[in-house]
Amino acid sequence: MHKYTKPTLLKLEQLFKELNYVVRYEKGNFNSSYCIVQNNNVVVVNKFFDTDGRVGILLDILEVILEDDSILSDKSKQFYKNLLKTHLNTL
Predict the structure, then answer these.
(1) Looking at residue 36, what DSSP letter applies?
(2) Among 38, 45, 47, which residue's Cα sits nearest to residue 65?
(3) Tally of CA atoms within 13 A in the half-sphere of 69 that contains its CB
(4) CA proximity to 9, closest of 55, 43, 49, 45
(5) Are the CB atoms for 22 and 43 separated by under 8 Å?
(6) Helix and strand element counts for the chain (H, E)
(7) Which of 12, 15, 25, 49 could form a disulfide with 53 if both were Cys (CB 3.0 to 4.6 A apart)?
């Protein structure tokens, strides 16, 4: 199983920022461990998740909200594709 690091999480958060989404870590009772408030472009993740959990959830959310990866910069697009491959191989 792959362990994600804090720098990976920070790069993923930056990718969301590039998509004009704000990532927030809050406590609460989340049915699916996260909540997307689309009208405000806010992604809320359970703050009690460890780094692996946060990266995994953010990748799941990104797959839902990212319809076209051409809006990402080349560097972000490459990072996302590599991270997605790694994530899918660990499932």
Answers:
(1) E
(2) 38
(3) 13
(4) 55
(5) yes
(6) 3, 3
(7) 49
Contacts of 17 (CB under 8 A, 6+ apart): 23
Show me where the domains of the chain are located: 6-86
pLDDT given for residue 67 in this prediction: 87
**Three-class SS of residue 13?**
helix
Neighbours of 8 (CB within 10 A): 19
Q: In what order do the strands lie in the sheet with 34-37?
A: 22-26, 42-46, 34-37
Which one-letter amino acid corresponds to residue 91? L
Do 73 and 31 contact (CB within 8 A), yes or no? no
* pLDDT single digits (tens) 3-26: 899 999 999 999 999 998 999 999
Structure tokens at 89: 């191989």
Q: Supply the pTM of this predicted model.
A: 0.86
